Amino acid sequence: SEPLGGLMIVMSVIAAIVNVICVWLLNRIDDPDVNVRAANTFSWNDFAANLGIVVAGGLVAWLGTNWPDLVVGVIVAGIAAWGGVGILKDAHGEHHKAVHDDNQASEDIA
Fold this sequence. Notes:
With 110 residues, this protein is mainly alpha-helical. It is 85% helix and 0% strand.
């Protein structure tokens, strides 16, 4: 089916606003645990995806072709994978601290 560039842009702008609010709220938490840090990463990844969709929606509407949507999808997948790796490293560091009662894992990751 044909992607609807205008609808893509409107929905992405709304979602980006929601993600900015989420990031703002999450950043107000003092001493966030690994779950809050992961939620923050998810929100930033979603925000980046929303910006990409706005760009793709504009290009789809302007060019009348689907390929910008595909390119943005690949980029968003890369951003999500990068964020996932960061979350796994963070969780591993938290696990290491809990099991070994030290900060060595945090120093190894940095």
